[in-house]
Amino acid sequence: MLQNRRRFIRDSSLGVLTFYLAGCEVEMTAEQAHRAGVTRQVFNEAEAEALGALAEVLLPGSIDLGLVEYVDQQLGAPLDQQMLMIKYLGVNPPFAPFYQGGLAALDQAATAAHGDRFAQLDSAQQTALVAAVAQGQVENWSGPPAPFFYFVLRNDAVDVTYGTKAGIEGLGIPYMAHIEPPSPWGQ
User: Is residue 181 part of a domain?
Assistant: First the structure.
């Protein structure tokens, strides 16, 4: 299955996905979609806010690179076109309930511990709660297994942030692809 994912990434236009903007299908990168304010297909406003806040704890900067838009677009795509790691981890589709259930559980945990939704907490409270999620130490967690939810979302953030030539080079590491993409990510 991992070979299929690699082949799909290699053979696709490497980062350009189809998003909906003003009722029209537009091809753009997740980062461009974030800046353009595309229409979400799956997440409601509270879920998008929670995912965005979680993304910033997991990997700062990933929200500006379009993590919310990427995950939302992938969840709305046909299964054979989805590239989310969850597809390869033995979870039966559809995957939206996994994400939505985890985000709802995160908001419930934040409200129980601090009296407000996750996106409204301060940075220290968010970081502490995410650490508890990663370790499976959240009382009355009602979503998918907390450490697994953390693992999947962290993976999504890493894919969006470092899954490009620019992302790797931003780490100061020379980009040495096993399979050289036909064009820069998103172009």
Answer: no
